[in-house]
Amino acid sequence: MKATVLVRPKAGILDPQGDAVERALEHLGFAVSGARVGKVVDLEVNADDEAGAREQVERMCEQLLANPLIESYEIELHG
Amino acid sequence: MASPQPRIGVVTYPGSQDDRDALWALGALDAEAVPVWHEERELPSLDAVVLPGGFSYGDYLRCGAIARFSPATSAVCAFAEQDGLVLGICNGFQVLCEAGLLPGALLRNESLRFVCRDVPLRVERADTPFTTRCDAGQTLVIPVKHGDGRYVPPPDLDPAQIVFRYRDNPNGSVDDIAGVCNEAGNVLGLMPHPEHAVDPLLGSADGALILASLVEAARDRALAAV
Question: Domains in chain A: how many in total?
Fold first, then answer.
């Protein structure tokens, strides 16, 4: 099963990359606010069903893919 | 009887780059510096361990996130749990945070720029095994060189764990924190590089105060173990 993990800087954590991207977008003439830069991890999991896959990916996030002090994560599963 | 030379290990990960300077500096301060390869599952007999600066495993995912899984890091964690002295410098500090031996995390510098310069530090605690040669309130000048040095503490960090603060914050660290220790006080991490400041020829020898404190504490442990 394919999974996508979105890792974001937690609310309240300063994200200078997001600020820089926001300023660059403003420079291009876009009216934007609240830009934050995170990461995407795509992977394939061996699991019998969606619940099993989600449980595995959650453990991956807790143990490695995200640092819970500074990052939040969101898991998307694709058929 | 001459006092014994304490044995202090320096771990080399793929991508470490300050391991040789750390080995040299410890040797210059009268320790027996012992190289430790990252694949070693058990540490040799040591009185202290240093995790050096660099870019272990290319800083992939997050700085220190992959080095945490190397066999030598597991051995260092076991050593620390038995009250062993562990010093993490720069990338070594990041590894110790990722491994859970120290609280907090290190993120991209607020400026988004790599900073490489001498910075003044304030010694907040002179009663750790890493700072006995310093005085509380003293200013040390030691170089930093990092792109990811912005320290973010956990919400419940005990202020007594803050050992060094920047006098001129180079990276946006919360509360100007430059170095922290664990609750027990046997593990310290800091972003500045004491091993690059042990000879006045290089601009400052203030780093020697930190490393000589460590050598002395390691020597006391070596003597106690005899």
Answer: 1
- CA–CA separation, B42 and B80 (whole Å): 13
Q: If contacts are CB pairs under 8 Å, which of residues 85-114 in chain B contact chain A?
A: 98, 104-105, 107-112
Q: Which domain holds residue A13?
A: 2-78
Query: A12: domain CATH number?
Result: 3.30.1280.10
Nearest CA-CA partner of B84 in B114, B42, B122: B42
Q: What is the DSSP code string of A9-20?
A: EPTTS--HHHHH
Q: What is the ipTM of this complex?
A: 0.88
**H or E element, residue A54:** helix A50-60
Q: What is the CATH number of domain B7-225?
A: 3.40.50.880
What's the half-sphere exposure (Cβ side, CA atoms, 13 Å) at B105? 18
Summarize pLDDT for A10-41 with one digit per residue, the tens. Answer: 999 999 999 999 999 999 999 999 999 999 99
- From B167's Cα to the closest Cα of chain A, the distance in A is 21
